[in-house]
Amino acid sequence: MKDTRLAFRRRHSYNTKSNKTRVVKTPGGKLALLYVKKQANVSKCGDCGEKLRGVKALRPMQKKKSISTKRLKHVSRAYGGARCGKCVRQRIIRAFLIEEQKIVKRVLIDQQKAKPTPAGK
Question: Is the pTM of this model over 0.85?
């Protein structure tokens, strides 16, 4: 019976999230440990929490480093790597409607001022 016990390759000996390994067979037929990196999360929309399309899943330090280029971290749109397309559309429509509302208020006030007031008897 073959011995399948393996020792960690690094000095860190506890079974923690950052010390996960998997067993692989080398071309020489020996068993060896490979350290598995933590899975990266896709960025989420700040408004609705939906996963952002077109943004690569990266670990936090990979996002900070200059190794990952800007095109991996955002899409070419307003609020590119922070908000999804639906939320950006909602923001634009909301801003437009608010501006329209202001214009309507202004027009109504102007009409009331222009209306001749009946003289008191």
Answer: no
Tens of pLDDT, residue by residue over 4-24, are 889 899 999 999 999 999 999
Burial of 52 (0-12, 13-18, 19+ CB in 10 A): buried
Q: Give dist(CA 83, CA 52) in Å, integer.
A: 7
Does residue 31 contact residue 4 with C-beta atoms inside 8 Å? yes
Q: Report the SS3 class of residue 24.
A: strand
b/e 80-96 (16+ beta carbons within 10 angstroms → b): eebbbeebbeeeeeeee
Compute φ and ψ for 22, nearest 5 degrees.
-135, 155
| pLDDT per residue as tens digits for the range 64-84 | 876 778 888 889 999 998 999
CA–CA distance, 12 with 4 (Å, rounded to integer) = 20
